[in-house]
Design goal:
Helix content: 25-40%
Largest sheet: 5 strands, antiparallel
Strand content: 25-35%
Structural class: alpha+beta
Length: about 200
């Protein structure tokens, strides 16, 4: 079974190797690793895509990592079968492949790029104009200038982030159950949104 685990560890040589060894000893198989954020306090956040054999409990992997000095598992969850981490550069390549559809392609790519459950493009007057299959059918437009986390009282189980496309549209992503959207993820979301707008406008 596939799982995605976010782990905080010291940003020094050898730390990731220790984590990888602990995961292997506990029965996990690493499929991919992505550095999510490097923090001023000397720690790094990594997302680790794991394959865990039937019968092995995720808690075993978590415990094996948490006993390492300076290492803490922040979150672990099932990951869709056949899923893979999508790097931002790969997302940009997808956007430039079809400039006329760049904004919709951005929405399609957001769930994989940010390990979110859905993405949507929301218009000021029209509401949701494009969304992935799990996106809500109705959402309100948000007046924002910079990418930010959002909280919706009617859904306390989903974490939201949004970025401005232009004065009339925003792009939103939702992640059920966590982990929290990091500042670095908000910056990446804003960057990709800006690139998508530039690519789409260049095609006009």
């Amino acid at each position: 079974m596939s799982f995605l685990m976010r782990v905080a560890l010291p940003d020094v040589p050898g730390s990731l190797g220790r984590v990888a060894t602990a995961i292997g000893v506990a029965g996990g198989d690493i499929e991919a690793i992505e550095i999510v954020e490097k923090r001023p306090d000397g720690t790094a956040l990594d997302d680790v895509l794991l394959e865990i054999p039937q019968g092995t409990m995720p808690d075993t992997i978590v415990s094996a990592c948490n006993v390492l000095d300076g290492v803490r598992v922040l979150w672990i969850s099932h990951y869709p079968s056949g899923g893979s981490l999508v790097l931002d550069l790969e997302a940009v390549e997808e956007l430039t492949a079809s400039p006329g559809e760049a904004l919709d392609r951005l929405v399609d790519l957001l769930p994989a790029t940010f390990r979110a459950d859905w993405g949507a493009r929301v218009h000021r007057a029209k509401g949701v104009v494009y969304g992935t299959s799990a996106a809500p059918e109705e959402m309100d437009f948000l007046e924002i200038e910079a990418p930010q986390r959002m909280e919706l009282p009617e859904d306390e189980n989903t974490l939201y982030a949004a970025a401005r496309l232009d004065g009339n549209e925003v792009v939103m992503i939702g992640r059920r159950g966590g982990p929290d959207f990091l500042d670095s993820e908000l910056a990446r979301l804003g960057h990709l949104a800006g690139l998508a707008v530039t690519i789409a406008n260049a095609n006009d």
